[in-house]
């Protein structure tokens, strides 16, 4: 009789354990981040490339001919402060209309999170040794003379300069480096984008809006006549880009 009871109890615990495992699986999901672009609320895609049709905060008429940027360390923070960091990174390439959506492979528990965030670019732990073959193959590297590692963003186009001439610009963001002394001095210019509180349900999709115009206006009004090329080795320019990037990304409200 005792043996029968033991077997019954064992089976009962096994059933409960299996049910709990199933519950854990059913309460986890993958999330997707969609990256949408605009110029001061006017939708922007690569169909808008190569035409001078935008005016920046400094009054310069300009176009966009290339736009791609990298995001990493997608993180969800629980109300108790615990964080879930999702593996992987994503090179958003508006130029070629690729990777405008990113679905990390890590499944996460459903529920309310106090914040959804990601890193613009790579942090220092990831941004070294040029060991990402996929990024190397698309010329995302930074020259060793500027510290190596990878770009955070490449934004290029043309503008009408103060002589009414159509002139190219290359607004490239990297880790800021000062080469003026005997040794290189670096300053971090990656930054965390905190999109605020989110609710994760089955296969949740979050639409992230990027206002390209913000890169040129807040808090630094960008003068393309003086800051248009050779910006990667320009320490002060990289700091200004870092500051302007803080206001670029927003989570689109769920309708």
TrEMBL record:
User: Which residues belong to any copy of the Copper-binding protein MbnP-like domain?
Assistant: 29-228
Q: Matching PROSITE patterns, A to Z?
A: PROKAR_LIPOPROTEIN
Top-level taxonomy: Bacteria, Pseudomonadati, Bacteroidota, Flavobacteriia, Flavobacteriales
Q: What is this protein called?
A: Copper-binding protein MbnP-like domain-containing protein
Organism per entry? Flavivirga aquatica
């Amino acid at each position: 009789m005792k043996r029968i009871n033991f077997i019954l109890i064992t089976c009962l615990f096994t059933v409960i354990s299996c049910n709990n495992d199933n519950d854990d699986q059913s309460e986890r999901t993958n999330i997707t981040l969609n990256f949408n672009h605009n110029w001061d609320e006017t939708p922007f895609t690569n169909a808008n490339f190569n035409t001078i049709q935008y005016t920046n905060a400094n009054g310069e008429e300009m176009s966009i001919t290339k736009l791609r940027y990298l995001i990493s360390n997608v993180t969800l923070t629980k109300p108790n402060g615990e964080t879930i960091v999702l593996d992987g990174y994503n090179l958003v390439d508006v130029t070629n209309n690729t990777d405008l959506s990113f679905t990390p492979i890590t499944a996460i528990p459903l529920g309310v999170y106090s914040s959804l965030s990601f890193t613009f670019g790579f942090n220092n732990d990831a941004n070294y040794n040029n060991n990402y073959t996929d990024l190397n193959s698309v010329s995302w590297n930074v020259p060793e003379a500027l510290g190596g590692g990878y770009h955070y963003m490449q934004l290029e186009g043309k503008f009408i300069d103060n002589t009414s001439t159509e002139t190219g610009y290359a607004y490239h963001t990297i880790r800021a480096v000062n080469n003026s002394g005997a040794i290189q001095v670096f300053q971090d210019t990656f930054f965390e984008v905190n999109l605020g509180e989110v609710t994760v349900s089955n296969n949740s999709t979050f639409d992230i809006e990027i206002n390209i115009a913000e890169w040129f206006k807040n808090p630094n009004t960008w003068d393309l006549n003086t800051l248009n090329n050779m910006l990667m080795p320009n320490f002060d320019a990289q700091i200004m880009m870092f500051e302007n990037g803080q206001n670029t990304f927003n989570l689109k409200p769920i309708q």
